[in-house]
Write a structure and sequence with these properties.
The structure is a single chain. 48% of the residues lie in helices and 14% in strands. The protein has a single domain, classed as 3-Layer(aba) Sandwich (Rossmann fold). The protein has a 6-stranded parallel beta sheet with strand order 1-6-5-2-3-4, sandwiched between helices. The protein is globular and about 75 Å long. The longest helix is centred in the first third of the chain and has 38 residues. By secondary structure, it is an alpha/beta fold. The termini are far apart.
């Protein structure tokens, strides 16, 4: 066994890895896409009149503004959808769940302020300050806020599919309402990131078993005062 033979074998192995790795990634993404679509089948709504009434709407967080300071339409359209559901009597309360780990980046507070501006009363808004990821938001909705059966998730359709997939895995009987989609360059980047997020969700369900980073004391929506701080 010569040194040149070993080098050829390593080179051949590297070539095979370069060929097989993308194939494996595409196969995994195909599995993730199919499973996520199946989990959300029949549970996505886009019309306010047809969505069943539920006690709480879980509004999934994102930043109010883009990195360049422009308005984030994903955020604005989610707030519009949440306020519309509340005004139509399709939800009694709204649980705004987002990231609050860095100074000057308080997604739940931003969502609360925007909902107040849209006429939703403060008593109907609860805040989850540890909704760091979609997985965190979904698990905490059940584990902290007791929402296993009476929940409507509110976000864009592609995001709702993944959230419903995670909810089903964690024994949460949820439906989802699709906020208006966004047609822009920013939307293209967001949808690209969503592909990676779907792979992560599939991995979490099938392999990783990841749980929420933080839990905490139970908060009974409608029976205890709003969890939002001033």
């Amino acid at each position: 066994m010569t040194l040149s033979w070993l080098r050829r074998r390593r080179r051949d192995l590297a070539v095979w890895l370069l060929v097989l790795a993308p194939c494996a990634l595409l196969w995994t993404y195909g599995c993730a896409r199919q499973e996520i679509a199946q989990a959300s089948s029949g549970r996505l709504y886009a019309d306010v009149a047809s969505v069943p009434a539920r006690k709480v709407g879980l509004v999934l967080g994102t930043s109010r503004a883009l990195a360049n300071g422009d308005r984030n339409l994903f955020f604005a359209y989610r707030m519009d959808a949440a306020a519309e559901l509340y005004r139509a009597g399709k939800v009694k309360y709204l649980l705004v769940s987002g990231d609050n780990r860095e100074p000057h980046h308080n997604e739940p507070a931003q969502m609360r302020d925007e909902l107040l501006a849209r006429g939703v009363p403060a008593t109907a808004i609860y805040c989850d300050y540890a909704g760091i990821t979609t997985l965190d938001s979904v698990i905490r909705a059940a584990a902290v806020f007791g929402l296993r059966d009476d929940l409507t998730i509110i976000s864009q359709g592609f995001h709702n599919q993944r959230a419903l997939y995670l909810a089903e895995h964690h024994g949460i009987n949820a439906i989802a309402f699709n906020a208006r989609d966004v047609n822009s360059y920013h939307a293209t980047r967001t949808l690209t990131r969503e592909r990676l997020s779907r792979l992560r969700a599939w991995w979490d369900v099938r392999v990783g078993g990841r749980e929420a980073r933080h839990l905490g004391p139970a908060i009974a929506i409608g029976r205890t005062p709003s969890s939002c701080t001033n």
